[in-house]
Amino acid sequence: MFSMRNFIKQGFLNAIGKQADYLIIQNAAKWHETGVLELSDLEEIQAALNARGTIEGDVTASTLS
């Protein structure tokens, strides 16, 4: 069964290294605001960006509100 959440999240994960980090972060935050992505999805995307060594710091609930 198709999952919009998994489709969007996988797209962001695949974009790492191909698209500017700030665009991935901005767009993922917008999908979170619409309720498609969950905070755990943003944490997974952040972990993938950190593993690549492209960004520093943590995204927390307070930075998303």
What does this structure look like?
The chain is mainly α. The protein has one domain. It is 66% helix and 0% strand. The chain has helices spanning 4-15, 21-33, 39-52, 61-64. The mean pLDDT is 87.
Descriptive tags:
single chain, 65 residues, mainly alpha
Précis, in short:
This protein is mostly helical and 65 residues long. It has helices spanning 4-15, 21-33, 39-52, 61-64.
- Count the DSSP helices: 4
**Helix amount, in percent?**
55-70%
What Rg is obtained from the alpha carbons, in whole angstroms?
A: 11 Å
Low-confidence stretches: none
Strand content: under 5%
SS-derived structural category: mainly alpha
Provide the succession of SSEs: HHHH
Outline, from the CA principal axes? globular
Residue-averaged pLDDT? 87
Describe the main β-sheet briefly.
Answer: none
User: What is the CA–CA distance across the termini?
Assistant: 31 Å
Number of DSSP strand runs: 0
